[in-house]
Structure formats: structure tokens, C-alpha cells
Amino acid sequence: MKNSTETGSRMYLLSIVMVAVLGGLLFGYDTAVISGAEKGLQAFFKGASDFQYTDYMHGFTSSSALIGCIIGSAFSGVLASNLGRKRSLILAGVLFFISAFGSMTPEFLIYPYGQPTYSLLVVFNIYRVIGGIGVGLASAICPMYIGEVAPSNIRGMLVSWNQFAIIFGQLVVYFVNFVILGGHANPVYDAVGSIVNMAEAQWTIETGWRYMFGSEMVPAGLFALLICFVPETPRYLVMIGQDQKALGILGRINGTAKAAQILQDIKDTITVRTERLFTYGYLCIFVGIMLSVFQQAVGINAVLYYAPRIFKDMGMENEMVFTVFMGVVNILFTLVAVFTVEKWGRKPLLISGSLGMALGALGVAVTFGHEGMEMMTAVSIMVYSASFMFSWGPICWVLIAEIFPNTIRGAAVAIAVAFQWIFNFIVSSTFVPMFNMHLTEGDDFGHWFTYGLYGLICLLAALFVWRLVPETKGKTLEDMSRLWRRIK
């Protein structure tokens, strides 16, 4: 039996990858924590005496973290190239922690506790933006980090675990919010916006939402601490001239004999620290951007963010049961991608997932609102969501982590992920207006138009992958430099 010096230590590799995917878990946790806290938060600021907290303000407050996500992802390339992958992730962990603490107690050292004011609302949103910056950094750099330390034969599987961690983080925070709420009630509003159960909801309004945001300090602190003990990626170390340190890490992961070969491949493709963004042609950047655009334009976040609303509009009495069931389905089908990406390849999963999503979306468009077809609509939603989870959900991150050449990866990933967050915001903010469109009073035009549009985009995504996206299964990151130079 060969020792780990000759073959590398799989346990060492898995330990550092598991620490890195905590960033994905925090990504999911931070973006979903608002779902449980927003009602109590809304009621708290409605109690302000110096301004009127409108629905538009609440909409902005609920989504203000997305502004930080765009900022964080846009600057992730600069930080990853100058601070390194590891220190950038430490920064993300610190930002997560600051945001969790500040969102829990925005009055800290400045304002009287428990007194809602306009200034306090501004401070609260600043803390949420800070958390969003952490999400943006983690969303770009976690898959980049995993992609740069993982051997090519299992890289896709390991990067896919990051998407699993994101979905798992969302489920964790749903459960945490449920436990925190306990026997207390969320505020319930009447037709004019007045709270009808003030006594029952008082604890939630004063304290509950704070605990929900503060709960993120636990995983954020753990991530910031543990990431200090993982190594920098070998490819970044070579870029800054620390070849011996890179060789040592490669040896622990791949074995001493193979480490020397991988190091030489890295050095052959990294002649300078960085190159111009379009050194490998415009198509390379275009493909990366469009992978991100299609991941969001297929409309998945409209389903994930508004699932209870959608199931309620279908006529389902227990909409939360269907929402939880869909979450379990999402977890299971994400695991399908984790365990098949290295066998089937990236393109087959993306194309089959696109076609499955198109079938599900068009099924919703045809059946939504028709009496007696509620279950068919629900099944179509499940098919749509499950198809995303084994394809565009994880595989997009895999490709973004590995498709760009070493010398432009930091900047290229930053641009691609920034487009992802921009289109996340576009899809999320346009879903409700499109869904509620009517040509005549009481018709279902908006319902079938919205999902018909998403179905069409899914078909375009399949065509895009078939014609333009290269298969990267089994290729090293250094192979990507040679591939794009040939295509250029």
C-alpha cells in the first residue's frame, strides 16, 4: 500500500475543501436569513416616529444585501490577485461577522436601544450591505479556491459541494429561524397595514428578528477562524514567486512525484503574474459572463424567493409544506450533480438540466390557474427546480472556477460573478410585476407569460452550452490556457 507521500493525502484535501465550503454555507445563510426576520423587522421600523416606513423602503431593506453582493463580487478579482485567495476569504468571514452583529444591534455605541429612527434604518442597511460584500467575495473566491487546490479528476465534484453548501445553508437558517421564533407569532397585517396581533407578536418585533440576524455570528466566526489554518492555493503561490511553498502543498495533495509535474505545468502557463483580460480572446470572457447570466435569467430565484407565494396562488392550502418539500428535493438533486459531474461531464448536465427546466417552466405556464390541475402545476415547479439543482446550480460554479486561464482568473471570475448578482437582482425584482400582469381583468396572462419566458430562456441556454461552452471534464487548469489560445 502506497503512503500519502507518494499518492497525496485525500484526507488533507477534503479537510481544506470542507473549510472552504463553509463560505458557501454562509453565502446561503446570509441571503436567506431575511426570510424569517423581515416581518418582525418591518413592524419594528413601522413604529418609528420621525418617518413613515413604506413598503418600498421595506423592499429595499429586504434586498439591500444584494448591493453589497454586486460590490463584493466586482472587487473579488482585485482582492484575490493582490491579497491572495486565502486572505480574501478571511476578509469575507470578518465581514460576515460584522454584518451579523451590526444587523442584530444596529444601535451599538451610537443610538438608544430599541428606538426605531430613520438614521437607525440607514445604519441597519449599511450593515446588510457589508454582509452582502462578504457574500459577493465568498461567491466568487470559494469556488476559485477549491478549483485551484483540487486535482483535475475530482475538481468538478469538489466545487459542486460549494453549491450543496449554499442550499444547505439556506435550509439551516430556515430551521434556525423556526427555532428562534418558537411559540411566538410573526406580525399579521390587515388591509390598511395595521398589525392585528400586536400582543402576540411583541417579542418578535422587539427581539426575535435580532436573534435571527445574530445567529449568523456562529458560522461566520467559525469560518473566519478555520480559514486561517488552510494553505494558500498553489497556483497563486506560483504567481507571486513562492514555488517551493507551492510544491509542498501540491505534494501533500497529489504526492511528491506528481507535484513536480503539476508545478511545471503551472509555471509554463504563468509567465507573468497577470495578463490583460482579453489576452485569450473575447469569447473566453463572453462564455464566462453568459454562464452567469443564464444561471439567473432562467428564473430560478423567482421560484426560490417566492415559493410560498407561488404555491399559495396555486390554491395550495399548506404552501409551507410544499416549500419545505421542494427544499428537500433541491438538496437531493444537488447531490446528483456532485456524484455525476466527473462521470457525465459538464455539458451533458447543463444541456439536460436546461431541457428539464424548459419542460417544467412550460408545464407551469400551461397548467397554472386551471381548476383541477394544481397538482400538475406543483409537479412542474418541482421538475423545474430539481432540473436546475443538478445542472445550472452547481455546474455553473464549477465552470466559472475552472474555465478561465490562470493569469486572468481573478479578474475574469469577478466580472462573471458580478453579472450573476446583477441578473439575480433583475430577475428577483421583475418577477412579481410580470407574474401579476393582466391583459383583461382577472386573466392569467402574467402567469403563463412569465413561465413561458423562462422556458424560452432555458431552451436558449441549452443552445448556448451546446454551441459555445467547451467541455472541461478531466482537463487541468493549465489546459485551459492552451484551449483558449487555440480557439482565439
How do the strands and helices of this protein lay out in sequence?
Layout: H1 4-7, H2 10-46, H3 55-63, H4 65-82, H5 85-104, H6 118-149, H7 155-181, H8 198-214, H9 217-226, H10 234-239, H11 243-254, H12 256-269, H13 282-297, H14 300-305, H15 307-313, H16 319-344, H17 346-367, H18 374-389, H19 392-402, H20 409-435, H21 445-468, H22 477-487
Describe the protein.
This protein has helices spanning 4-7, 10-46, 55-63, 65-82, 85-104, 118-149, 155-181, 198-214, 217-226, 234-239, 243-254, 256-269, 282-297, 300-305, 307-313, 319-344, 346-367, 374-389, 392-402, 409-435, 445-468, 477-487. It has 488 residues and is mostly helical. The two termini are 45 Å apart. The model has no long low-confidence stretch (mean pLDDT 83).
In brief:
With 488 residues, the chain is an all-alpha fold. The chain has 22 helices and no strands. The protein has helices at 4-7, 10-46, 55-63, 65-82, 85-104, 118-149, 155-181, 198-214, 217-226, 234-239, 243-254, 256-269, 282-297, 300-305, 307-313, 319-344, 346-367, 374-389, 392-402, 409-435, 445-468, 477-487.
